[in-house]
């Protein structure tokens, strides 16, 4: 079964969601007419490109982004999806705005190409902390009081190289009670990602080293919090 469909199944609970486009879409999130806001923060740092041949981290990231875009494209009335990147160049690189989502396959591919190119040509460095803080602040300021807000960070877990404290990052994840923040480590040198997961708040981080695990992890994050 395609990875995209596995993800959508987790969101809607409907295994045949793509069986017939003319069918009535399943109702979920019906308790409020306010759209839930989701901000996907993608690691497009130089290390993502450099170590892609080592563990496929950039390929998995692009695959994850495409799955999320396609899973939410039929639910724009229920969710606001924004996608930004971070690297040594910047803590906030816009890739997709909920106000102007891609309307065809070419526009989706352009987003992925932009991410790949940025990772290939950006300066070295890491802005994970600033990117996470910026995402929390931005989504909070853009949300109305009753709106549910979620930040999902895709990172290559390269914390030790840039002396990022897991304890400090854990505090940041829990810094705003109105924003649910999750980290998905999609790359790792040795066992750093696992060690980071053990150091962060329970249930707020995941390790993904195999493509087959990716839809399960993203489905778990979204279905356990958004629904």
Automatic annotation (TrEMBL):
Residues spanning the membrane: none
SMART domains: VWA
InterPro entries on file: VWA8, VWF_A, vWFA_dom_sf
Gene Ontology cellular-component annotations: cytoplasm
Record domain VWFA: where: 37-221
PANTHER family, per database record: VON WILLEBRAND FACTOR A DOMAIN-CONTAINING PROTEIN 8
UniProt name for this protein: VWFA domain-containing protein
Species of provenance: Amphimedon queenslandica (Sponge)
């Amino acid at each position: 079964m395609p990875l995209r469909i596995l993800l959508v199944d987790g969101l809607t609970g409907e295994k045949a969601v793509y069986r017939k486009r003319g069918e009535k879409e399943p109702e979920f999130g019906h308790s409020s007419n306010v759209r839930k806001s989701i901000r996907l923060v993608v690691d497009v740092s130089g290390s993502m490109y450099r170590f892609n041949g080592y563990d496929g981290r950039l390929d998995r990231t692009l695959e994850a982004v495409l799955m999320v875009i396609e899973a939410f494209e039929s639910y724009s009335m229920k969710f606001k999806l924004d996608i930004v990147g971070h690297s040594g160049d910047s803590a906030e690189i816009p890739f997709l705005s909920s106000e102007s989502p891609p309307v065809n396959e070419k526009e989706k591919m352009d987003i992925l190409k932009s991410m790949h190119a940025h990772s290939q040509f950006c300066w070295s460095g890491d802005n994970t902390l600033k990117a996470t803080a910026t995402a929390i602040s931005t989504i909070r300021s853009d949300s109305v009081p009753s709106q549910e807000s979620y930040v999902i960070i895709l990172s290559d877990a390269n914390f030790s190289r840039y002396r990022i404290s897991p304890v400090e990052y854990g505090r940041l994840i829990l810094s705003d009670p109105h924003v649910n923040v999750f980290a998905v480590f999609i790359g790792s040198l040795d066992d750093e990602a696992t060690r980071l997961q053990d150091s962060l708040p329970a249930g707020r981080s995941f390790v993904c080293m195999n493509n087959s695990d990716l839809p399960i992890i993203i489905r778990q994050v979204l279905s356990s919090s958004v629904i």
